[in-house]
Inverse folding.
């Protein structure tokens, strides 16, 4: 956590809400800082600590919404920050700030891959990188599996979804459309009977 | 098996606008189903790009997945690379435009929903729909994530050393806070030295 200098306003005091350009530049700073991961930690540091656009509570609420709703978490977080200040246009500007440079770079890398991969013999390098990516993809399931270990219904739902996709080759959309409402009905919060 | 698939599978020409609309619709409709941060869509991306539209071989899909993971920025931008793969035969400009179109299509619906949810969160927070959605969709997401992990493992690893590297990376991801970039760098070196092969 960076030390605060005397010129900065005291902790907890929010600065004026950012304009569209500031929003764009702030999100771009987040995107550039987070090379190599830790995106949500960087966006907390920049948005809450350095630029003082929102307090920690609002930021953490944003993380909750971003994880809950469909869409990539980091991208949803940018949308939350942008829409808080300027609605839809703020969301689009924040999104553009977060994606413009990384996406441009990725397009260049993509052209390099599609046109040059044979000439440059990057295949062998990628063959190695892929094994690490596969391990990372596997770890994502294990990461959240622990939180369901005491709920047999949840484990059954997870196992059935897994088998439906791997053994029966059910596509994702029909799976979610059938299993989603059933699971929601099971977990619908019940009102406790009045004593 | 992939050679057999390639023999019966020919890429559809992207010049036909009805075909183009069908592709855009595929990405638009997947957008709202990207639970758990977007990785859940990878098996669908593989199905679209390799099996349904034949833009890429399974091997190329694994390559661009690794590329998207290693490049800075959200790894869900792999959709841009898929879109590029669909049209790159027509030239680099079409490749980039197609990549941009695919990325916009996959992000647009979830973006609009996220804006609506951000602006009305105070009302949504305590609603039973929110509680049931969070608790009900969580376990389904878990099952999908394992299915996705297995799929990526199958298309990526073809010999014992490769499976061993994946297993070690998986354990280290769970037990340590080492940056994933290190895993990719070391694994890339192993590939370059010929320890792991496609």
């Amino acid at each position: 956590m960076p030390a605060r200098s005397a010129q900065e306003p005291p902790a907890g005091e929010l600065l004026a809400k950012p304009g569209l350009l500031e929003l764009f530049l702030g999100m771009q700073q987040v995107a550039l800082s987070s090379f190599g991961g830790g995106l949500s930690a960087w966006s907390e540091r920049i948005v809450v600590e350095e630029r003082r656009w929102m307090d920690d509570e609002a930021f953490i609420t944003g993380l909750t919404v971003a994880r809950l709703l469909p869409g990539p978490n980091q991208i949803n977080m940018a949308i939350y920050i942008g829409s808080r200040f300027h609605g839809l246009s703020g969301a689009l500007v924040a999104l553009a700030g977060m994606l413009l440079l990384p996406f441009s770079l990725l397009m260049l890398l993509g052209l390099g891959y599609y046109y040059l991969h044979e000439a440059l013999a990057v295949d062998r390098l990628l063959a190695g990188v892929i094994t690490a990516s596969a391990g990372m993809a596997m770890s994502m399931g294990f990461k959240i599996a622990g939180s369901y270990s005491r709920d047999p219904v949840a484990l059954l739902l997870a196992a059935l979804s897994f088998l439906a996709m791997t053994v029966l080759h059910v596509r994702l959309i029909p799976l979610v459309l059938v299993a989603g409402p059933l699971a929601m009905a099971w977990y619908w919060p019940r009102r406790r009977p009045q004593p | 098996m992939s050679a057999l698939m390639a023999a019966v599978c020919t890429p559809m020409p992207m010049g036909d606008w009805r075909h183009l609309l069908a592709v855009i619709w595929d990405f638009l409709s997947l957008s709202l189903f990207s639970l758990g941060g977007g990785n859940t869509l990878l098996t669908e991306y593989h199905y679209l790009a390799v099996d349904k539209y034949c833009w890429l071989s399974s091997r190329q899909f694994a390559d661009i997945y690794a590329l998207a993971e290693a490049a800075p920025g959200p790894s869900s931008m792999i959709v841009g690379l898929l879109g590029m793969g669909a049209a790159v035969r027509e030239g680099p400009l079409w490749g980039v435009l197609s990549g941009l179109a695919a990325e916009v299509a996959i992000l647009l619906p979830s973006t609009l929903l996220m804006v609506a949810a951000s602006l009305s969160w105070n009302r949504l927070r305590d609603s039973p729909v929110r509680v049931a959605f969070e608790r009900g969709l969580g376990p389904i997401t878990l099952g999908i994530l394992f299915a996705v992990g297995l799929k990526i493992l199958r298309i990526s690893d073809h010999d014992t050393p490769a499976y061993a590297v994946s297993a070690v990376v998986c354990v280290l991801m769970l037990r340590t806070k080492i940056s994933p970039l290190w895993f990719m760098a070391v694994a890339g070196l192993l590939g370059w030295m010929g320890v792991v092969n496609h």
